[in-house]
Write a structure and sequence with these properties.
The complex is a heterodimer of chains A (136) and B (159). Helix content of chain A is 41%, strand content 18%. With 136 residues, chain A is of the alpha/beta class. The chains are: A alpha/beta (136), B alpha+beta (159).
């Protein structure tokens, strides 16, 4: 199985590292971005270079400078060439109304901080991105 | 009248944060202690605006801030830089603040975190403390506070 390229988007370096450890342990390759704009810049570059470099999964924080996570999800969903990218919000925004907003904008799953590694892996199971039986 | 977050709310949130990131093996929890004048060197804060207005603060000693950065970033204590401390404490304030926000009336918005390397007193003159969790972690002071704004929308104090 080819390792899935995963984009971890969070303005906190510590949080990017925590998420990177979890998905790297699953065998995923990781690229990091500090906010939605950095992530979109990377994706636009990848689109120019060819779809082989596109991430299949993005773990997206909500509250970030320049372009927040909701804006990023909306921008990705507006780009047909990124339609296969799975988007998972990983955020402190825990109100039901915010979850509904993110899912309506095009996020596939939602994890609330603080989280355990198992919480992330369980969602990846649900999305069919990790085989059953894999645990933290 | 809005019900403000309580010390118990802060304790539950802090326990979740510690068990997820700072005390994953259960050997070094945040231990609640009576109010005291513990050493405060670093404060990270997020502001809440909207239907409720105020601030959520995470304050601690320099040693505690460096322990937190080392734990979150998975590095040795002697490798921790000031940037690491700002990143780690800011993220802790963001997570705790976001969970506090979920207890408040909607709609509210959370600011990006701000970290300053000094005590918190005097920085929020138009706000009053409504809940505080005093604790020690690895024998160092850690305090989580919720301050409610006492200023109206024109910035005039109403108390």
């Amino acid at each position: 199985m080819t390792p899935m390229l995963t984009m971890v988007i969070d303005d906190s370096r510590a949080m990017r590292l925590i998420l990177k450890r979890i998905v790297a342990q699953l065998g995923f390759d990781v690229v990091e971005a500090g906010n939605g704009k950095e992530a979109m810049d990377y994706l636009e570059g990848a689109l120019e270079r060819g779809e082989g470099e596109l991430p299949g999964l993005a773990l997206v924080d909500w509250n970030m400078p320049e372009m927040n996570g909701l804006e990023f999800v909306t921008a990705v969903r507006a780009e047909p060439r990124l339609r296969n990218m799975t988007l998972m919000m990983v955020t402190t925004e825990s109100e039901q109304s915010q979850i509904v907003r993110a899912l309506a904008a095009g996020a596939h799953e939602y994890v609330i901080k603080p989280f355990t590694p198992d919480a992330i892996i369980d969602k990846l199971h649900l999305l069919g991105l990790v085989p059953n039986g894999v645990a933290a | 009248m809005t019900a403000n977050p309580t010390e118990d709310d802060l304790r539950v949130i802090a326990e979740q944060v510690w068990s997820s990131y700072l005390d994953t093996d259960g050997s070094s929890p945040l231990l609640p202690v009576p109010p005291e004048n513990g050493q405060i060197d670093v404060t990270a804060s997020v502001s809440v605006t909207g239907a409720w207005r105020g601030h959520v603060l995470v304050s601690c000693s320099d040693a505690a801030s460096r322990n937190a950065a080392a734990a979150l970033l998975g590095i040795e204590l002697d490798e921790v830089t000031d940037d690491d401390v700002a990143d780690a404490l800011g993220e802790l304030a963001n997570i705790i603040g976001g969970n506090v926000k979920s207890l408040l009336p909607e709609p509210c918005a959370l600011s990006l975190p701000h970290v300053h390397v000094e005590g918190s007193s005097g920085r929020y003159p138009a706000a009053t403390e409504v809940a505080t969790l005093n604790g020690t972690w690895l024998d160092e002071s850690v305090t989580v506070s919720v301050l409610e704004s006492t200023a109206d929308f024109a910035g005039v104090s109403t108390s």
